[in-house]
Write a structure and sequence with these properties.
about 250 residues, mainly alpha
């Protein structure tokens, strides 16, 4: 009987709401939470503390200055410039080491390995002419770089016979732009910042690679492509650990 009564009450309740819209009022109270997230600066070594003079404003700043060489602002500016120049030379050097050796292996070229290239006889010139031309061109480029570093924008003013002003720059010796940016990367500030970071990262990698090339040549007497091919042919026995010159205590 109790079950029958409960069923009747449910049936009556359904009938009361049948065909009618039921309106409900729900009050929601929203709470606004403000959260401030502070990301730690990227570091060259996890957990290491950035020196005070490396505040993250420099391109590729990961807090690396274990010797404190850049504590003085003028020294820091010069070391930033020096690193960038060496990075660019290392990238050119790495390409100059790898590409000719790879093309020689492919049969496209027939040139000696990089550490013997200086002894190669050139058909289009001689050593004295080549050295003189290089000294003039490099001297001009280095003069502009150092002068622009000391006196930004000064070389764009009319100078001796108008020669210096004929090669305009932005006044920034690290990123001269103008005639030294034929692809126009410096025209867009956002693109320029990305390219700066890519350049210094690849440049640092190239400097490490060149140090490796020097070590390989001294330890094995062959170029990096030959070293790579020898390692692939026998990866478990041809390694840095198997070379007595590289790891003498093993």
């Amino acid at each position: 009987m109790m079950a029958t009564r409960a069923t009747s009450q449910i049936t009556a309740a359904k009938a009361a709401f049948a065909g009618k819209a039921v309106r409900g009022s729900v009050t929601t109270r929203a709470a606004v939470v403000s959260t401030k997230v502070t990301c730690a600066a990227k570091s060259w070594m996890p957990g290491s503390k950035h020196p005070a003079h490396l505040d993250g404003s420099l391109v590729g700043d990961f807090g690396f200055d274990p010797l404190g060489l850049g504590k003085k602002p003028e020294d820091l500016a010069w070391y930033v410039q020096a690193e960038l120049v060496h990075a660019r030379f290392a990238m050119l050097g790495a390409a100059g080491v790898l590409i000719p050796e790879a093309l020689t292996k492919m049969g496209v070229l027939n040139v000696p390995v990089w550490y013997e290239a200086g002894a190669m006889e050139l058909s289009f010139t001689n050593t004295i002419t080549l050295a003189t031309t290089q000294a003039i061109l490099m001297g001009f480029a280095e003069h502009r770089r150092i002068y622009d570093f000391k006196y930004p924008g000064k070389l764009n003013e009319p100078g001796w016979a108008g020669f210096e002003a004929g090669v305009p720059t932005s006044g920034n010796s690290s990123y001269p732009g103008e005639a030294f940016d034929p692809l126009g990367f410096s025209k867009d500030p956002a693109v320029l910042e990305k390219m700066k970071l890519r350049e210094i990262k690849n440049g640092r990698l190239a400097m490490m690679a060149m140090a490796g090339f020097y070590g390989q040549a001294a330890a094995t007497g062959t170029g990096p492509i030959d070293n790579w091919l020898a390692h692939i042919a026998d990866p478990f026995h041809t390694t840095v650990a198997s070379n007595a010159a590289a790891v003498p205590f093993l």
